[in-house]
Amino acid sequence: MMRVTVPTRMIRWAIDRSDVPEEHLHGRFRKLAEWIAGSHRPTLKQLQDFAKATHTPFGYFFLHEPPQEQVPIPDFRTIADEPIARPSPNLLDTIYLCQQRQEWYREYARSVGEAPVKLIGSARRSDDVASTAERIRAALGFNLDQRRRMRTWTEALRSFVEQADNLGILAMVSGIVGSNTHRPLDPDEFRGFALADPLAPLVFVNGADTKAAQMFTLAHELAHLWLGESGLSDASARATPDQPVERWCNQVAAELLVPLDAVRQAHRPGESLQDEMSRLARQFKVSTLVVLRRLHDAGYLTRKQLWDAYDAEVQRLQGLPRGKGGDYYLTTPARVSRRFARAVVTAAWEGRASFTEALRLLGCRKIATLRELGQSVGADIGRSVGADI
Prior knowledge:
- By secondary structure, the chain is of the alpha+beta class.
- The protein folds into three domains: 8-62; 78-258, no CATH class; 336-389, no CATH class.
- Helices cover 53% and strands 7% of the residues.
- The protein has helices spanning 8-18, 22-28, 32-37, 44-53, 89-112, 129-140, 144-149, 153-166, 211-227, 244-257, 260-266, 273-284, 288-297, 303-318, 328-336, 338-350, 355-362, 367-377; strands at residues 78-79, 82-83, 170-174, 176-177, 180-184, 192-195, 202-206, 231-233.
- The strands form three sheets. Strands 3-7-6-8 form a four-stranded mixed β-sheet, with helices on both faces. The chain has a two-stranded antiparallel ribbon with strand order 1-2.
- The longest helix is centred in the N-terminal third of the chain and has 24 residues, at 89-112.
- It starts with 7 loop residues before the first helix and ends in a 12-residue tail after the last helix.
């Protein structure tokens, strides 16, 4: 039985990095304490299983020192205005997966002659916030009156994602890593990111956050694309970031979702703050936190009133239950982008991509599931040599 020599510091690092409860790992790997102490070596199979359990690239175990892992795109997240030191494996794997999908779609778009999305990189940070928000709203077909008539946050968010998709943007909303329901994403770590590219612009929104908060994140990441700048964000209506790009994107996102002129028209001076923010949140289909910020921006709340109300509302929202699961053929297009799913399935049936590659990119296991998914997103699935594999 082949045993592998692994530096003990690498075993310890993998445990700490994983964020998996250590008692869970000790229960699964009975000799783990001895691996850490260096008195026992794992077999090759055990080390492979340990790498999978801790979400660690297998080759890392043969390094002498732990690598300094960094987010592969500009990282605008901060805690107390300081950069966040260590990204989690779930965050890193999500970014890497989205980069792979973007690379695939870029080559696909070139092969089928898709035109670049001209609006990507069309704005500058020196541009007026209100006029930029209006240009984005016009490009998306973002209609405030239609949004007000929508019944639920879910309906409004789905419409917002579809508007981005129709414009040529790969909009992905997911609360897990890939299709692995055992690897939930943490909205306290990040809320979204943008990968700017003229042929395959991509935004990712952390679906573990509330629906209303996802609306603001999506708007924030779209602002990044309009600048033509990639970045990882912790978009929040409360934040006034030090980084100019984040501050500008926050301002554009707020104006896109809740224009100040519309706030002033809808404001009811005699209404209680609780009633006012609940009513405006329903009207604009945004979180009450965004409404509070816009009431402050419009001059109806002092800074102290804003923060007192904001903190109280955060506590209330944290106590609310969150929805789980859903229909696979509805959730999967949202997780991977309807545009992306349609392209991958069409490419597989046309012979531009292998079925193995298509299954990997979409997180499917069966050709039958791939076919059903393709039909649900309007993919061109004709008769072909591989269609009945």
